[in-house]
Amino acid sequence: MLNYLPLVKLKDWLRRDGLDILVEQEKSDQDGTLKAMLRQAGLSDALATAISLERIEATHFSAEQSNKGQRKLNEKFSEYVAEVRDFEGIEYKGDSDALFSWFSRNRKKKIEEIVRRLSRHGVLGHYLLERIVDGDPESTGYVCLLREVVTLPRNVAEKIGKGLDKPTYESLCGTGLTDQGLMIGADDMAVPVIEIGSPTIEHILQSFSNLFGRIGVADPVDKVIGKIIDGCIAD
């Protein structure tokens, strides 16, 4: 059996793993914005856990308020509620493309930020490759998924090394091998397209090792350390 790490296009990653990160950040930001506006209005942070945003808006952020500062806060809260409900409606549909489009329209800087974090190896478990072919001007980036180690039977891997078509792959799976989930088109082949050179390949493996190679040991026992110290300073 041979193990490998999947490599996916950055555009696809942004619509799955990256999108999960963006959604988590967005919800955290929404929660922080809500709490800040509630505190500004002299209301409890916990209010939103008891009643809906619409009810909070109708009760505490009414447009009938005459104070100029309050009116501005009312408008801001109304815009916040509309944006949150728009976001929730798109998320509920489960359409990743539509949800990513929402971020492209409303949170472009957040997308830029996560790509820049990837480029600095700041997203744990994910490794950005700007290109896999030197001098490729059309490359839009790839992400190596360090957490998703996949296993292939050796005979399948050997066939891929020379070029594996769909009928051959299906015949190998039909001999009792577990389907490893390779998706090969009817008129396509699974075949190596590039060899990642040094030092990039070593850095990828180093990142992988750092992710999974952490070894924990018990904390030192104070009494034992104390005796060692006493032995060191004894006459």
Give a written overview of the molecule.
It is a single chain. With 235 residues, the protein is mainly alpha-helical. It has 2 domains: 2-11 and 123-212, no CATH class; 12-119, no CATH class. The chain has helices at 10-13, 17-40, 53-60, 68-93, 96-106, 108-119, 154-162, 166-173, 200-212, 222-233, and strands at 2-4, 7-9, 126-129, 142-145, 150-152, 164-165, 189-190. It has a 3-stranded antiparallel beta sheet. A two-stranded antiparallel ribbon has the order 1-5. Strands 6-7 form a two-stranded antiparallel ribbon. Helix 2 (17-40) packs antiparallel against helix 4 and helix 3 packs antiparallel against helix 4. The N and C termini lie far apart (60 Å). Residues 175-179 have low confidence and may be disordered.
Query: What is the overall silhouette?
Result: flat
Beta strand %: 5-15%
Extended strand count: 7
Q: How helical, in percent, are the residues?
A: 40-55%
The pLDDT mean sits at 87
Element-level helix/strand string:
EEHHHHHHEEEHEHEHH
Number of domains: 2
Distance between the termini: 60 Å
Rg (C-alpha, Å): 27 Å
Count of helix runs: 10
Q: Widest sheet: strand order?
A: 2-4-3
Query: pLDDT below 50 for ≥5 consecutive residues: which ranges?
Result: 175-179
Look at the helices and sheets and give the structural class: mainly alpha
- Major beta-sheet overview: 3 strands, antiparallel
